[in-house]
Amino acid sequence: xxxxxxxxxxxxxxxxxxxxxxxxxxxxxxxxxxxxxxxxxxxxxxxxxxxxxxxxxxxxxxxxxxxxxxxxxxxxxxxxxxxxxxxxxxxxxxxxxxxxxxxxxxxxxxxxxxxxxxxxxxxxxxxxxxxxxxxxxxxxxxxxxxxxxxxxxxxxxxxxxxxxxxxxxxxxxxxxxxxxxxxxxxxxxxxxxxxxxxxxxxxxxxxxxxxxxxxxxxxxxxxxxxxxxxxxxxxxxxxxxxxxxxxxxxxxxxxxxxxxxxxxxxxxxxxxxxxxxxxxxxxxxxxxxxxxxxxxxxxxxxxxxxxxxxxxxxxxxxxxxxxxxxxxxxxxxxxxxxxxxxxxxxxxxxxxxxxxxxxxxxxxxxxxxxxxxxxxxxxxxxxxxxxxxxxxxxxxxxxxxxxxxxxxxxxxxxxxxxxxxxxxxxxxxxxxxxxxxxxxxxxxxxxxxxxxxxxxxxxxxxxxxxxxxxxxxxxxxxxxxxxxxxxxxxxxxxxxxxxxxxxxxxxxxxxxxxxxxxxxxxxxxxxxxxxxxxxxxxxxxxxxxxxxxxxxxxxxxxxxxxxxxxxxxxxxxxxxxxxxxxxxxxxxxxxxxxxxxxxxxxxxxxxxxxxxxxxxxxxxxxxxxxxxxxxxxxxxxxxxxxxxxxxxxxxxxxxxxxxxxxxxxxxxxxxxxxxxxxxxxxxxxxxxxxxxxxxxxxxxxxxxxxxxxxxxxxxxxxxxxxxxxxxxxxxxxxxxxxxxxxxxxxxxxxxxxxxxxxxxxxxxxxxxxxxxxxxxxxxxxxxxxxxxxxxxxxxxx
Length: 797
Prior knowledge:
- The protein has about 800 residues and is an all-alpha fold.
- It has a domain at about 15-165.
- The chain has helices spanning about 5-15, 20-40, 50-60, 70-100, 105-115, 120-145, 150-155, 165-180, 185-200, 215-240, 250-275, 285-295, 300-310, 315-320, 320-330, 335-350, 355-375, 380-385, 400-415, 420-435, 445-450, 465-475, 480-490, 500-510, 520-525, 530-535, 540-555, 560-565, 570-585, 590-595, 605-615, 620-635, 640-650, 655-675, 685-700, 710-720, 730-740, 750-760, 765-785, 790-795.
- The model is unreliable at about 390-395, about 460-480 and about 785-795 (pLDDT under 50).
- Keywords: Coiled coil.
C-alpha cells in the first residue's frame, strides 16, 4: 500500500532543509496549543481558575522541550511561545492576584506553578510567578519605609513584615529558582530558559540607585542573581564544546550553535560587568565575576571575555583597585592578554607608582608561573590561548605570554626608575625563578659561582669608590674550575623553552639597557640574574645579547668630557672594564660589535691590555675592526704612549690601516711636542723617528704586489701632511725613494717618484725635489703610465 502525495507538495518539501521542516512542524503544534489555551481560558479569570490557567499554559510551553532544532531555529520557536505566555498568561496571573477580596497571593501562584510535573513548562511559569512575588515584596518594603505601622497588616496576611525578612525572602526565592534550573542539562534550552527568567525578574530587581527605598544590600541581591544566572549559562555553554562532531556537517552545526549561544552569554556578562564596575558599592561582585569567568571551561572564551571586561575599567579606578583586579586575572593563563593590556594602559597614562608596580610584579610573576605550568601539562591548551586574538588591530606576539609579561615589567622599571636597579633586579630575579624553579633562595650563590664579579657595584667616591670592585677583582684572581662550575650549574634544570622563546629572552634581558641611566649600564650587566641568564644562553644567543649591548651603548654612550673623565678616571675606567668583560666573549665572533663599544666608553687601556696578554687568541679580523677605534680612544683619553704601543699590537690589521695610524700618530706626536696637545707622558724625538720607521716597515712588509703602488702613494701623501723629525728626515726620505725605485710594478715607479718630488718640495729640499721630478719623467718615458689628471691634482695638493 502506498499513500499518494501530490507532486507539488513533494517539490515544496524538497526545497526546504530538515531544520526548516522541523521548525514549521513545531510551530504548527504551538499554534494549536495557543488556540486551545484561548478557547479554554476566558479573558476574565477568577482565583478558582488558577490551576486551569497553569495547566493550559504548561501545555503551550511543552513545545519548548524539543531538542532537534538548532539554536537559531529554537530561538524563533522560543520567541513565539514566550511572547504568547507574557501577553496572555501573565495578565491572567495578575488578574487573579489583584482581584478584590482574593485570598490568592503571588506566593500562592508561585506555589501552584511548582506543581507542574514537566520541568521546562514548570520553570517558565515559575519565572513569571517570581516576577510577581518580587513585585509584591518591593511594594511591601516601600510601604514599610513610608509607614512602619504597615508591618501589622503584613503580619495578618502572613507576609514578611520587616525589611530584613523581605530581603531574605527575595534572596531565598531567587536562589530556589536558580537551583531548580540546574535540572535542565541541555545547553540551548537552559540558556534560553534563564534568559526568559532574568527578563521577567530584572524589572523587579533593584539594579539601580534610582529607587529611594532601595539600599546597597537590595541592589547586591539583584547583582548576585545576575552573576549566578550568567555563570550557569556560561557553564552550560562550555559543555557544547563536547557535542558530537563525527562529520564535517556536524562540526559546522556545533560551531554555529556555540557561536550563537556564546553571543547571548557574553552579552549577559558584559551587562553585569558594566553595572558592577561603574557602581562603587558593587566592586566586590565585579572581582567575583572576573574569578567566575576565569574558571570558565573554555579557555579561549574566558580569555576574550576577561579582556573585554577589563576594558570597561577606567584607568584611574583600575590603578586604585589594581591588586583586587589582578588577583583573579593572574590565577590562570587566560588572564595573560588582559594583564598585558592593563600594564600598557597604566603605563600610557603614567599611573604606575611603586605600589602599583609591586602589585604588577607579584601578580605578573604568579601569572607567568601559571603559564609555564600549563605549557608543561597541556601545551595545546596554551597554544590556543596564545593564538587567540580577535582584535585585528593588535599584533600577535611571537613569544610566550610569560616572557611578554616580564618584558613589560622591565620596560616600566627602566623608564620610571632609570637610576634605581632594585626594581629591575626584582623583576629579573622572578624571571630566573620561573626558568630555574630550584634556584629559589640561591640566586646570589649561583651567580657568584659563575662569576665572582656578579653584583659588583662601582661607587663614585674618591677614597672608597672602588672598594667593592677591587674586592671582586681579588676574588676573580682565585683559580676557578670552569668544569666544576658548569657541572654545578647543570644541577639546576631549566624549564623547556622553544627556540623562539630563547631568542625572545635575549631581547627581554637587553630591553632595560635602553632606559637606564648611563652610569648604571655596567652594573646592570653584572646583576646576579643577568649573570645567570648569560650562563644559560647558548653561544649564538650570547653573541646576540652582546650585540644588543653594543647597540645600546652606541645609542647611549657612557663617555664623559675630558674634564669629567680626568676628575674620576678610575671610576669611569672600572665601569668600562665591566662592559668589556661582558663583550670579550664575542671579540672573534662579532668583531664589529666589539669595536663599536670602544669609542662609547673609557675602556681603551683595558682593551689594549687584553690585546697584549691574549693577542694570539684574537683574530686578525677583530684586530682590523678595532684598530682605528682603539687608537683614537687612547688618544681621546690622554694615553699617547699607549696609543703608540697599540700600533704594535694591531699589525695584523693590514698595511693601509697601520700606515694611516702611524702617520696620525706622527701628527699627534708632533703637536704634543709643540704643546698643542696636552698629554701626561713625555714625548721624545726617538718616538717620532720610530713612528716613521715602523710605517715604512709596514709598507715594505705588505705582501700583495698589486697593492704596493697605491699603498706607497698613500704613505707619501700622509707624510706630506706631517712634520718629519729633523735629524732623521734625510734617512726617511731616502728609504721612501728606495721604495719608489724598487717597485715591482715598474709602470708605477714614475708616478710614485712624482709624488716623492712633492714630498721633497714640502720639506724644503729643492735639489732633491728637482732630481726626483726629472727621474720621474725618465721612468714614465721608459715604462709609461704618466700621472692622471686626478693623481696630478692630488700630488700638487
